[in-house]
Amino acid sequence: NQFDIIHAHDWLAYPAGIAASKVSGKPLVIHVHATDFDRSGGAVNPVVYDIEKRGMEAADQIITVSNLTRETVINKYGIDQSKVVTVYNAVEPAGGIYDNFRAKPGDDKVVTFLGRITLQKGPEYFIEAAHRVLQVMDNVRFVMAGSGDMMERMMRRAASLNITDRFHFTGFLKGDDVYRMLYMSDVYIMPSVSEPFGISPLEAMQSNVPVIISKQSGVAEILTHAVKVDFWDIDAMADAIHGILTYPAMSRMFIEKGREEVNTFKWENSARHVKEVYLSALTNKLN
Description:
- The chain is an alpha/beta fold.
- Helix content is 45%, strand content 15%.
- The strands form two sheets. A six-stranded parallel beta sheet has the order 7-6-5-8-9-10, sandwiched between helices. A four-stranded parallel beta sheet has the order 1-2-3-4, with helices on both faces.
- α6 links the parallel β6 and β7 (167-171).
- α5 packs across α9.
- The radius of gyration is 21 Å and the shape is elongated.
- It starts with 5 loop residues before the first strand and ends with a helix.
- 39% of the residues are buried.
């Protein structure tokens, strides 16, 4: 019993958190990084939903990673808004990770999608936007870096659009390969259908890459120097890609201002806010 708080992250940990709280009498804080509404695209698994709801109801305090997720918790799960608090994520400093990377070969521009190739991440919108851009530009390559259950379908779609000579699939990347891919990129795009937060745009901005993100993402709430589009608006997405690649002054502005902005997002600030939630949970339990 040498602890004060039980902190459970996402639905798989909620049953253990509930049990530990009951046995110990200590307050339970749950951290919602995503809900099944995000993961499923709306086709919610009732078993998962029930576990999530029971965890939220049992929790003394709930931390969500964005106001987007906070609204889902309140409206979709019927949770009292007074115990739901948003604490935004941050990003680790890149340090000197790029010092030994070589410049990309050739003069082609590179537009990168980096993430799981699943319904939630909106990969099909990236491919459709790429097709539109390639109709007016011939010096650009598109990279879909990741893996997932939609990968084969996305490969078939790229082939049907006859863009496979300019559209590349890398498979899953990790570690330095992620930063190497960002280092080679001229634009990073996150067209997520539902993204509770989204740290990867912060990593891209830190890597001096302009970013295009969907309005349906938590990170859109805190970013100023990013292009924001609806995930379904492939014309706006294509226009944004074309604009950044065509106008160097626009690209430089997003790079410079984006780097300044992302350097203000520190985990120390997030940790301080989490500590405040802990203290609130302890105070409420005592009262």
